[in-house]
Amino acid sequence: MDLLVLRHGEAGRRSTSPGDSKRSLTAEGRQEIVDLSNGLKSLEVKLDCILTSPLLRAKQTAEIVAKSLKYKGKIEELDSLKPEGNRLEFYSVLSRLKQDSMVLVVGHEPYLSEMISEAISQSGCRINLKKAGLARIRVLSTLPKIRGELRWLLTPKHLKKIA
Known about the structure:
By secondary structure, the protein is α/β, with parallel strands linked by helices. Helices cover 34% and strands 21% of the residues.
């Protein structure tokens, strides 16, 4: 399985209302994701599954990528991808997917960077996934914890140049 790990684009400022879960992508954040999607098209990425956090900015990010790549499947929202979500629950979801799948996962920091680090290192390496940053991991196993090989770690600028 190949796991594309995408941090949502730039979102509006944190405030007390309407709350963190309702923060939307900014115009700049939307454009970053459009540019990223164009880079993925240039790389001829074909998605089999999209999994996203239910928070608005992550869902919007997933929807932009899905539309751009002409993804016909359902975008599945998982509470286990929320910032405070349980990674072991997420790994259980991954274990039920086909081994030859290309899966897009959209979420938040520090959850995603911690997941990437856990997948590629047993010695506690540290990854910093930028907003609209993308990692590609070749997953070798999902249970009890994810294990794999890092194939890409790209910033939005890298993907814009690829497009």
